[in-house]
Amino acid sequence: MKTMAKKQIITFDEFTREQLISSLKKYALKELDLDLGNFPAQFLFDFIVEEFGHHFYNQALNDTHEWLAERFAYLNEDLFILSKEKINKTK
Fold this sequence. Notes:
mainly alpha
């Protein structure tokens, strides 16, 4: 019986994934004096994405929601300014 791979909440194209893993390896070497090989760095990267990715994703959504709410409030004000009243013609 085949098992289906679990879909990650955040996915990266291969080029971006390789760049991020390379950054993780450089950080580990510089800050932790830890020379990670390719496989350990990939496993660590996958762990970080799986464990923390949804927090980053949800925070980005919350930030976007707040920004959009503010923008729509301004848009609502702008639309109100454009509203027209009936012009009463007096003779």
